[in-house]
């Protein structure tokens, strides 16, 4: 952990920004780089049942472009001298974050939990829980 970069997934929410502050603090403490990742869900659609005027591929590309703009804005707000990498991936957030962590041999994942409970927790995939349960490296979940 002490020599490998920290992976920080973001959905650009306030909670994710809070987790990013923890990730920056830890990266500064250990003097390691920071890797920011955003995962765009792959839109589901059938060519035979198109209701929209655009294809799922075009929608995904548009979502990636919007995420890239948000990532640039997020980076411009940061006042840090840390070595930073950014990546935008497409697919299942849990699978893509875990794959990135393995591919880049990160030392730790620092991410936000949106703290859902009850029916909301049941109906929505809990990404933080999925990452914490399956990651091969330490995971810090920030509320």
From TrEMBL:
<dbReference type="InterPro" id="IPR006016">
    <property type="entry name" value="UspA"/>
</dbReference>
<protein>
    <submittedName>
        <fullName>UspA domain protein</fullName>
    </submittedName>
</protein>
<dbReference type="Pfam" id="PF00582">
    <property type="entry name" value="Usp"/>
</dbReference>
<feature type="domain" description="UspA">
    <location>
        <begin position="4"/>
        <end position="143"/>
    </location>
</feature>
<dbReference type="InterPro" id="IPR006015">
    <property type="entry name" value="Universal_stress_UspA"/>
</dbReference>
<dbReference type="InterPro" id="IPR014729">
    <property type="entry name" value="Rossmann-like_a/b/a_fold"/>
</dbReference>
<comment type="similarity">
    <text>Belongs to the universal stress protein A family.</text>
</comment>
